[in-house]
Structures are given as structure tokens and as C-alpha cells.
Automatic annotation (TrEMBL):
<dbReference type="InterPro" id="IPR016181">
    <property type="entry name" value="Acyl_CoA_acyltransferase"/>
</dbReference>
<feature type="domain" description="N-acetyltransferase">
    <location>
        <begin position="4"/>
        <end position="149"/>
    </location>
</feature>
<dbReference type="InterPro" id="IPR000182">
    <property type="entry name" value="GNAT_dom"/>
</dbReference>
<dbReference type="Pfam" id="PF13673">
    <property type="entry name" value="Acetyltransf_10"/>
</dbReference>
<protein>
    <submittedName>
        <fullName>GNAT family N-acetyltransferase</fullName>
    </submittedName>
</protein>
Amino acid sequence: MARVIVRSWQETYRGLMADGVLDDPGQVAFRERFWTAALVDERYRANRVAVAVRDGAVIGVAMAGPPAAAEPGWNLHLYVLYVLAEHHGSGAGAALLDAVVGTREPAALWVADPNPRAQAFYRKHGFVADGAVQVEDGVREIRMVRSGVPFPASR
């Protein structure tokens, strides 16, 4: 899972995020510690985690859970959704999204801007930009939200 996240960051954020962060040799070990905690630590118990596997290898990872701060209109935050670039368009991303955020659930997420491919993916699944912007790790992000209106399954 950690290797998929780090490789996805390198594929997605090159040019948006500092190379020193993307190429940090300690990044995989750091992410492994995070995922170990996310999977076993009581404070992450309410989170939903899913992986996409092809030919016995993890190709995508997703995690959603309660937002850090309560927000009106949604009570689920998509924290992680990454699929290796060679598997974009395979349906893995949609399956991961459906696994951690039900098609009828209101939810929010932060997505890099610019990242037209990801933003189009989320729009296809009922998310819209709500005007909120933040900068994290030097990357500008916009918030996208989905209301609780039923949205057709993406499969």
C-alpha cells in the first residue's frame, strides 16, 4: 500500500510537489508506518480502507472516514484514492471509490489543482468544487463535495 501511494504521488504530483519530497528515500517507510497505524490503531476504527489488486499485486488504495472537523452537509471524507497510472481507466478507481464511499453518501475530498484527470473522475461520480481552497505540502488543492442525492453506481 505504501509503495503504491508513493509511486502514485511521483506519477501524479511531479512538477506540483517538490522533488525532494517525492524522491525522499524514507517516504515508503514513513507511509508503511502510517498504514500500519491506519489498519490497527483504534483511532482509525471508523475509517474504511480498500485496495485494488490485479495479478496478485496492489494497484490502488482508498481510505475514507469521518472528517477532522464536522461540516454541514456531509460526514464522510475521502482521504486517499490512488491508482497506479498504468491502471487508470481500468475501473479500479471507481471500484475503490464505491468501496469506501457509498454511491448515496454525502462526502468531501481535497484534490490537487491542477489535476484535471482526477477532477474529471470525481465530477463523473457526482462531486463538485465548493470554492474552498487550501495549500498542503506546497500543492494547491480544491475541495469537492457530493450531496446525499442518490448517484448511479459507477460500475
